[in-house]
Each structure stands twice: as C-alpha cells, then as structure tokens.
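Researcher: Let's do a round of design. I'm pasting the structure tokens now; please hold your answer until I've finished.
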C-alpha cells in the first residue's frame, strides 16, 4: 500500500516499525504498517496490507543508514507542520505542501528508516490537527516526533556501526521500549517500535554481538560488510580475487625490477673489470684510463635515468635490456 502525504482521515491504528532478524539465513526483515496489518503479514495472510515489507541481507539497516547532516527532518519536515499548527487556515496549505514534498522525497528514498519517519511525521501532524486546543496538540506532536527524528541527525553512520554505540545510547536515552512478537510457525521473533529507533538499534547490536558478527569496511571496494571475525578486511570472493590479482601484479612488477637491476649490475661489473685490467697493465695510458672511467660514469648516469624511466612507465624493461646490449658492443 502506498502512503499519500495529504489531508486525509486518520485511521485509528498507529503505524509501527517492525524488525525481525534471522541468523540462519543471515537476513533482516523490516515491515512498516499498522499493528493489525503487520500481524496479518506475519501470519502470512495474503490480504495483509503494509506500507513496507522488505527482506535484505543482515546489517542492511545500518549499511543503508545516512546521517541527516543538514537537519532536514527538523527544518524541512517538522517545522513547516509545526508552523501550520500555529497559523490561520489560509497559510496552512503552503506549509503543508512544503512538508509533504519533503516527506514524499524521503519516502521515495526507499530506506526503511526514512519511510517510517515520513509516515509518522505526517500521521502525527494529522492527529495534532484534530483537537481544538492546537497549542497543546502541537506540543504533543513536537515531543512525539522529535524523539523519533532527532537520532537521525545525531548519529553519524560510522558511530552507529560501532557496537560501543549501544552503551552510549543506553546511557543517553530514555526511549527503551520495544515489543516482542512471536509469529506462529517460526522461531524468529519480531520486535516492533513506535516512539524511537534507538531501542531497535540497541536490539540489533545485541543480536549481532551474540552471533559474533562485526561491521567492517572492505579494504578493496570500501563497502561495509558483516564479518565473523574482526581480522577480516575483505568483503567477498570477488574482492578477494581482485586483491589476489593486484598482489600478483605487484609481485611481477617487483620481479621485473629485479631482473633489470640484475642486467645493470652485470654490465657495471663488466665496466669495472675493463678498468681494473687496464690499471694492471704496466704500460697503460693515463689518457685512455681516464677516458674509460668517464665513459663508465656516463654509463652509470644514463642507466640511472633509464631505470627510473622504466619505473615510472615512460620506458619498458625490454627497451632497457636493448640499451644494455648496445653497451656490450662498446
Ligand atoms: Zn569488497
């Protein structure tokens, strides 16, 4: 069922956020809907009608989480509706439209947290419009929604991925309520939350800790993944293959470098041999010897330049080898 962000009759039921984690298949399932419809879904009723029902790999909720760094939920979602509750009916539609546009945008993000927050924000506003005493209703609306949306801007993703975050949440928050449901024919429990995402995050971390799973960042592709060991740094076979190919390439490059270094050293040895042989002669000419020595220095200098050209890709090993062979003819 699609949710529409417009003035409408509120159906009496509250909209819940439901999560169930399956260790065996390493999956998370998230549902957003009224209590009755979620219940029907969990009981496999084909007529069940919820706003969201997705089964994803375990950890997806945290992996898809994006911190609301610009406070969009407060400034573009909550504030126009808050102002609409305090203004006359001629000014209301414009403010409602601004918030509806923002909620629709968030809803279409298609991540479970945004979908839930958008529906709750709009539903909370519809409820706050009903009582005659708008000021009191607005305060209730504020209290209700702020505790839901403020963690979305307060927590950066890397912090939320860290299991120590659970301790911090526990210390700082008073929102700890979570209902546990036991759907039939399965031993997978389902938790539902209404006021806040924080107990959902806590519950999730607790389960991952029990199952010895850790969030890690892949050193090849940079993706966040769940590892069975803190030492793991590569997310998949595909990345492992890539890493091996790179390692092999590095090794080959080193082998080639060793090879041309070897060619160079042999050639330098040959030069020194010439020089020593000439020095040993009783009748060597000083002129010839110094010419030979300066030619050797020229060789060393050029070899150095050519070696660095090979190293930075401007020349190749075979070109270097060919040049050395030319020197042999000296
Ligand atoms: Zn990877």
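Researcher: That's everything. Go ahead.
Model: Designed sequence:
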């Amino acid at each position: 069922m699609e949710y529409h962000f417009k003035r409408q009759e509120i159906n009496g039921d509250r909209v819940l956020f439901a999560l169930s984690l399956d260790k065996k298949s390493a999956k998370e399932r998230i549902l957003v809907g009224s209590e009755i419809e979620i219940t029907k879904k969990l009981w496999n009723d084909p007529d069940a009608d919820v706003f969201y029902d997705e089964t994803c790999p375990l950890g997806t909720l945290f992996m898809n989480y994006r911190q609301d760094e610009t406070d969009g939920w407060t400034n573009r979602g909550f504030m126009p509706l808050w102002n609409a509750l305090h203004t006359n009916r001629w000014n209301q539609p414009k403010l409602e439209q601004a918030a509806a546009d923002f909620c629709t945008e968030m809803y279409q993000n298609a991540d479970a947290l945004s979908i839930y927050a958008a529906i709750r924000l709009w539903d909370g506003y519809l409820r706050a419009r009903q009582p005659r005493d708008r000021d009191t209703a607005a305060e209730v609306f504020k209290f209700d929604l702020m505790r839901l949306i403020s963690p979305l801007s307060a927590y950066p993703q890397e912090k939320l991925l860290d299991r120590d975050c659970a301790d911090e949440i526990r210390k700082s928050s008073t929102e700890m309520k979570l209902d546990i449901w036991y759907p039939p024919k399965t031993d997978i429990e389902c938790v539902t939350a209404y006021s806040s995402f924080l107990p959902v995050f806590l519950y999730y971390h607790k389960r991952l800790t029990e199952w010895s799973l850790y969030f890690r960042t892949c050193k090849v592709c940079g993706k966040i993944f769940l590892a069975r060991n803190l030492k793991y740094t590569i997310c998949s076979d595909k990345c492992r293959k890539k890493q091996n190919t790179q390692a092999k390439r590095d090794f080959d490059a080193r082998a080639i470098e060793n090879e041309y270094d070897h060619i160079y050293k042999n050639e330098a040895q040959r030069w020194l041999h010439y020089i020593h042989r000439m020095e040993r002669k009783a009748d060597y000419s000083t002129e010839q010897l110094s010419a030979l020595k300066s030619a050797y220095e020229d060789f060393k200098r050029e070899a150095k330049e050519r070696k660095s050209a090979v190293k930075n890709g401007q020349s190749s090993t075979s070109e270097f080898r060919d040049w050395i062979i030319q020197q042999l003819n000296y």
